[in-house]
Amino acid sequence: MPSLVNWLFRPAEADTEGLVEAAPVMRVREVFQRFWPDARPFRGWLALSLVLVLLAPMLETAGIWLFKVLIDNVLTPRDFDAFPMIAAAYAAITVASGVIDFSQQYLTVWIGENFLHRLRTKVFAHLHTLSVGFFDRRRIGDTLSRLTGDVGAIESLVLSGVTQTTSSLIKIVLFTGVLVYLNWQLALVSLVAVPIFWLIARSFARRIKDASREERGRTGSIATVAEESLGNAALIQAYGREQAEVDRFSRQSRGNVLAALASARVGALFSPLVDVLEVLGVMAIVGVGIWELAQNRITLGGLLAFLVYLSQLYTPVRSLGQLTNTIFGASASAERIINLLDERPLVRSPEHPTPLGRARGGLQVDEVRFRYPGTTADVLRDISFTALPGQTTAVVGASGAGKSTLTKLLLRFYDPDHGAIRLDGHDLREYELDRLRANIAIVLQETLLLDGTIADNILAGRPDATEQQMIEAARAADAHEFVQALPEGYRTRVGQRGRLLSGGQRQRIAIARAMIRDAPILLLDEPTTSLDAEASRRVLAPLRRLMSGRTTIVISHNLMTVADAHQIIYLDNGAITEAGTHAQLLTNNDGYAHLYHLHHPADRHQPPASAGADSQGA
Ligand SMILES: Nc1ncnc2c1ncn2[C@@H]1O[C@H](COP(=O)(O)OP(=O)(O)OP(=O)(O)O)[C@@H](O)[C@H]1O
């Protein structure tokens, strides 16, 4: 027997690695307080729905009362006279109940869905306020599962929870009142069972919450594996890792099954326990009722009506218990949402920002030191250099030296731990984030395209640009020709992440986007690395057009376009070890020169002036 009980209450085995971050545990009351303000716009409708909730049990009570009248005034005396009235009243009550039920159900769904829509959008909007660092840390699949699955559970806690609890309480009060009115001795016997119900429901609530928490976490893990795996389908198939991925998915899915079973065991036990209790209660009452009937202290109609009221009373008591379980289950989901909402962006706009229109574009990096949050080593150390407006600075160095990290600091995806980056003499942190980023255009190594049309992607750089400006930008980016050759021209969809275009085409769209943005600062992070020699050459002329007149920071590790930069900064393991022009650094014959000769063995004995043109195809 004890082993059976153990089995019933056993939590899901933790035989799969936990993939998702657990949310902090919260009390139901805190969860409720947290989300109640979100229901504010619906409070009027909620009040109306409560009125309907109030009317329904009243009609129900009246209906059952008619049943008593029918037995005592029609059936027992075998007198037909009162019947038509009773029948008409019964029909009227049934129709009215129907109308109220419909309105109440529809209203509840309407409020619930609109509340959900608002909350979902709020969580999504919040995610977009978070710094890029958040997305580096979190598993996207789990975040998606929170956004789609867990948000729904909150509705059952905050809205349906309120109406259903109120409805159940009203029914309990009404039916108890009538029971006491019919025969108080009998009523007393039947109410003994109520606190027992309540105790059982309470003891179940915590277990159900634990089980639900486990289940929601596992659902997040499934979504995480699916997202990571399907997102890398090409890689997985190329390396024949399909089965390994299926196994990984299956393990997470199995974990979910175990958690769902553990939750079902606890949940399903509740009903039968309550059933047994109910039957015992009814038997006891019938016994006492027969006694009362024999003593003539209650009529037959009275006794039958009493039993019907009683059965009606158990329904709300029971659903109140069930509801507690639902609410505790839902609060496990709510914890996961609160956990997301409590994430604060690492970088924020200041309260009193320095106004920034179009920047002149002078950049000054001053003793910057930086390490990624949660790591132990500095990625950048004492970085100082100045980029004059309109000039090109090339940042060069081995893989992992910290070049891309520098661009992340310039875009304020992160802030330096020490030192400052200044734009036109002011610390980047003094400007509003939007204004700062509006002054920067980027072209990255792996071009990011949105799933939309080519026009959407170019106009993302400046949504208010005209069609003519867009075409000019595309021309300057050497993209107009190939775009026109596409079946739907600028209206052609590029597919998810631009998969329907070639690497070089994607890059030229990105250049057009940067072109149309017409920002004074340009960040190029290895813009030709992923392209072959021919494609890089094709991209180079538009890139040069884009760079002219803008403060450009170009990161490159194959030294393309670097040779004619105004200054070159050589990063080694997070620190600047050399700085100067191409010719100066070649003369130094240190890290930069070595890297350069590695890429251009043929140039070793040639004068540096010709190097820029030759380096294009590297
Ligand atoms: N989000 C991150 N969290 C923690 N560490 C990171 C993160 N991004 C990069 N790093 C670490 O910072 C260091 C510098 O990375 P960074 O991407 O800036 O190098 P890089 O010079 O641009 O390299 P590559 O030329 O290969 O692109 C690396 O050691 C890397 O492991």
TrEMBL record:
Transmembrane segments: 45-70, 82-100, 172-200
Entry keyword Membrane: yes
PROSITE patterns linked to this entry: ABC_TM1F (PS50929), ABC_TRANSPORTER_1 (PS00211), ABC_TRANSPORTER_2 (PS50893)
Single GO MF descriptor: ATP binding
SMART domains: AAA
Membrane topology summary: Multi-pass membrane protein
UniProtKB keywords: ATP-binding, Membrane, Nucleotide-binding, Transmembrane, Transmembrane helix
Keyword Nucleotide-binding: yes
InterPro entries membership: AAA+_ATPase, ABC1_TM_dom, ABC1_TM_sf, ABC_transporter-like_ATP-bd, ABC_transporter-like_CS, P-loop_NTPase, Type_1_exporter
Occurrences of domain ABC transporter (ranges): 363-598
The name this protein goes by in its record: ABC transporter ATP-binding protein
UniProt organism field: Saccharopolyspora rosea
Source species taxonomy: Bacteria, Bacillati, Actinomycetota, Actinomycetes, Pseudonocardiales
